[in-house]
Design brief:
mainly alpha
Length: 435
């Protein structure tokens, strides 16, 4: 059957490598913050919340709607169907936004902006909900390293796209061709790379290295494969959800508002044109590069430290401190670059550890459904609410300081939950060992 055709166990590193490549090409939501000022100008808007609301719709699609459906399909049929759906939604979403820029009335255009962003989010959700769980199934032995490589592609495309898009806008203006390009590119990579070659391993498959370490032939795999029902009755499932929610809210608030935060900080020293055409494109490139380094590095670090629980609190706590430092230094271009690099390096470990910790705790057999569900109600809510709430507070108060304080407090709460979860997990594993 065509659903089971694809690369086999002897070339399993193909999966994280192509996940990385595809993530580079299709995950362009980090550029949305770059487009906000241009959309304000195009439609003559004074406020920001109605524009940033697109990030909420994208978050609903990418984390709440897409992954749970993808998880159910993945566990039963493998990843191919999800990648076809991803291609369709990504293409339709970008085409809708391209049509938006042909309009002049925001009261009509905003529906294209919101629905297009929602479709792009759903397409991204079908991709992320499939490739992460599939890589997790192929790599029970090197989960952190493989997952770090697989998710490192998300946002890395900004290194390439940010300067190219900025140069294009300078030469041709902000127009629909940008989004038509993304529509064609995203559909092509999904249909010609992911669909033909990806498949899931058998449920009980183990790599040779793990089989050789097993005490006897035919012994049970290391660790327990929880059913979805068993996972939801486990305290660690809900602790993870709380951690993910706090982290996602603060991270998405910051990343989806960072362009406007930079403009707020530098507007007294630099002209708006210089900020938009020079500072912001370079910052987004630095953001993508540091995120790439962070995502891969923290996957390896997690394996070296002995598991994702020991790493999770670090990638929560340090960015909380750096977020405050960023605001204190956001009137300096150099400090914006330096602190921004450090922030995205540490926070780059966040998605890696999130995806690695689920199979670490609950096993691989029902990974698609468990992983997509815990992400949907936690990361999904944080991703959907963080950007808009931050922008709304800014519109009411006239600045970002109170929104940043809220984001930092929430992130520190997630840090405390992560430390608590680590202790709960240690007790659970000790009890299972004794029993």
């Amino acid at each position: 059957m065509w659903l089971k055709r694809g690369i086999g166990e002897d070339k399993r590193w193909f999966y994280p490598i192509t996940a990385f490549t595809t993530g580079v090409i299709i995950t362009v939501n980090a550029l949305w913050t770059m487009f906000y000022p241009y959309i304000q100008t195009h439609f003559g808007l004074d406020t920001t919340a109605s524009i940033v609301l697109a990030a909420t719709f994208m978050g609903i699609g990418s984390m709440i709607l897409g992954p749970p459906i993808a998880g159910i399909i993945l566990d039963k049929y493998g990843p191919k169907i999800n990648f076809i759906l991803s291609a369709a939604f990504l293409a339709c979403g970008h085409i809708l936004i391209a049509q938006m820029l042909k309009l002049t009335d925001w009261s009509t255009a905003m529906y294209y902006w919101y629905i297009g962003s929602l479709f792009i989010g759903i397409g991204t959700g079908f991709f992320s909900g499939s490739h992460t769980a599939t890589v997790g199934k192929w790599f029970p032995d090197k989960t952190g390293t493989a997952m770090g490589l697989a998710v490192a592609g998300a946002g890395t495309g900004t290194i390439i796209y940010s300067p190219l898009v900025a140069a294009y806008i300078r030469a041709n203006g902000f127009n629909s061709n940008i989004f038509l390009f993304f529509a064609v590119l995203s559909a092509a990579v999904m249909l010609f790379i992911m669909v033909p070659f990806w498949r899931s391993p058998d449920h009980n498959w183990l790599p040779k290295s793990m089989k050789e370490k097993m005490p006897a032939a035919g012994a049970a795999p290391i660790g327990k494969d929880y059913t979805f029902e068993e996972a939801t009755k486990d305290k660690r499932f809900w602790i993870m959800g709380g951690c993910f929610l706090c982290a996602a809210f603060s991270l998405m608030f910051f990343t989806q508002n960072v362009t406007l935060i930079i403009i707020e900080g530098l507007s007294s020293n630099l002209l708006a044109e210089e900020i938009l055409t020079k500072v912001i494109p370079l910052f987004l490139t630095i953001q993508a590069a540091s995120g790439l380094i962070g995502r891969f590095s923290w996957g390896v670090i997690s394996d070296k430290l002995g598991g994702p629980w020991k790493t999770l609190w670090i990638v929560y706590f340090v960015p909380a401190v750096l977020m405050g430092m960023f605001y204190l230094g956001y009137k300096s271009v150099i400090l914006i670059y330096i602190i921004g690099f450090l922030f995205f390096f540490f926070s780059g470990g966040e998605p890696v550890i999130h995806y690695a910790i689920v199979p670490y705790v609950f096993g691989r057999r029902h990974l698609g459904k468990i992983m997509s569900t815990v992400n949907a109600f936690s990361v999904g809510i944080g991703v959907a609410s963080g950007p808009f709430i931050g922008a709304y507070i800014k519109d009411i108060t006239g600045g970002y300081v109170l929104a940043l304080v809220l984001a930092i407090v929430i992130r520190l709460s997630g840090t405390g939950l992560a430390i608590y979860g680590m202790k709960v997990d240690e007790k659970k594993r000790l009890k299972e060992l004794v029993d």
